Amino acid sequence: MKPDVGFDPVGGSLRLSRETLARMRDVHAGHEISEEAGAALRAAALLQGTVLHPRLVAVVETAARPLARLSLDVSRKTPLHCDGWVGQRFALLLTAASATHEVFDATFLSRSLLTAQVARFVDVGPRPRPKVADPIEIDQGLLEAVLGGGQPLTASQLEMLLDARDEVLPVWLEVLSTLSARPHKRWRAGVWWNSFQETPQARSLEILDSDAGLFFIGHAARADRRYRRVRLRPVTPSQVWRLLCALIPPPNDVAEPLSY
User: Most buried among 39, 71, 221, 252, using CB within 10 Å?
Assistant: First the structure.
């Protein structure tokens, strides 16, 4: 356990590793942990004697039996990864620059504030209105090449790379050219839970945020095409907010909590 794992009761800051959270759950459930693990938890101010700090009980209970799990990845100059546990009343979010980090900043908040917090992580706000109004479907590989940060592509170069059966308006070629030449942010949020159906339920949302505007990225039907295709649909910040609000299932849609 690294020394920067710990709880500051005065300032309210909390930093956890996944292993630490698991040990805290074991303590709260009455399971035995090693003396070394207990000493490390006490040194990090997570335990008082042999029990959890009172202010951390709700944190662990939320993580132990969440109604839904949340994952968020933001690709930008400073990337962000978030693991989330969503309970009946509260939510716990662990954030770091990537999923491979050992220590995460923890945010514990009311469930009612969860959407606003995720919107803050991805910086939902006023954006230029896209020059396009209708969606397009293109090859997924071409989109990844456009967003790959390599050589900027002109509209004429993009037109040559399109599938011969694709009909893309010149204004869309200009938008794609802008996306290839300028910095952008791309984020994907996913949520899963136990539904009343036979299989677990899941939802996801992927957004491209750029100088050319906001775009929803969705998978398109393959039809007779050989390669996977994606649909780019221009959206407004208000539409992104509504999509985020619809991402988390209401408690009544959850059959039973997920296991840790």
Answer: 71
Strand order in the sheet with 6-7: 6-7, 14-16, 104-110, 90-96, 80-86, 68-75, 184-193, 201-210, 213-220, 229-235, 136-139
Q: What angle do CA 103, 100, 24 make, to 5 degrees?
A: 40
What's the pLDDT tens digit per position in 228-249? Answer: 888 999 999 999 999 999 999 9
Q: Are 225 and 138 in contact (CB under 8 A)?
A: no
Task: Please name which of 191, 190, 188, 192 lies closest in space to residue 215, comparing C-alpha atoms.
Answer: 188
- Please, are residues 15 and 104 in contact by the beta-carbon 8 Å criterion? yes
Q: Which SS3 state, helix, strand or coil, does residue 15 take?
A: strand
pTM of the predicted structure, to 2 decimals: 0.90
Structure letter (DSSP) for residue 259: P
